[in-house]
Predict the structure.
Amino acid sequence: MSEYNVLALKYRPKSFSQVSGQKHILNSIINSLKDKRIHHSYLFTGMRGIGKTSVARILAKSLNCQIEVSPYPCEKCTNCVGINEGTFVDLIEIDGASRTKVEDMREMLENIQYTPSQGRFKIYLIDEVHMLSKHSFNALLKTLEEPPKHVKFILATTEIHKIPDTVMSRCIHFSLKKLSGISIEKKVTEILKNENIQYDDVSINLIQEYSHGSMRDALNLVDQCVENLKLSYKRIKEVLGITKKENCVQFN
């Protein structure tokens, strides 16, 4: 029996053109890549499930595609395939929540001096970076400002207010927005059609309303509610525990 691949992972964007919304930051990133204006440290901020890590991985792929640095990576070379499959050794993904100790940061910084094994750049993607300790941030500061030429940092967080100003000032900051209802409805509809899942417009609207601007939350809710290749309004209400009174408030 093959393992089910949840929709949020199966349909994770692999190119900038597949990212829903966020055109305000994508245009800047794409233009900088076209002009080869590459910063050494990036910071992506915004609520959960709107594409911060996806955009970070696409940026890493754009920087390390074997053909050239480009906003349109080839998707065929060893580096592109490795990043898509999560096996590319020069993209080091770090969970800030589990690497909070200053000893962890110092260990990482000691390895930064070594050149990439496969790619053009060694890229450190630190997710939920706000979880790092004050001492860890302090240890990172100097390297974040002037890393070796073969190193790029991409930081991501849902809680920008917890990022020290000293870190913010060393990064190019991109603030991702909550996704519009139209963007979520369009993407969910596209995915349901591709998966041959029956649906109706009222169900799509309810999914969108309760996702609160998060594409990941919307797709996770779809995964919960689909039965026998059908997404029904009744089933969504059952999963969400919506009463008749709440339903009237939501749609009146």
Q: What stands out?
A: The mean pLDDT is 92. Residues 181-251 form a domain with the Helicase, Ruva Protein; domain 3 fold (CATH 1.10.8.60).
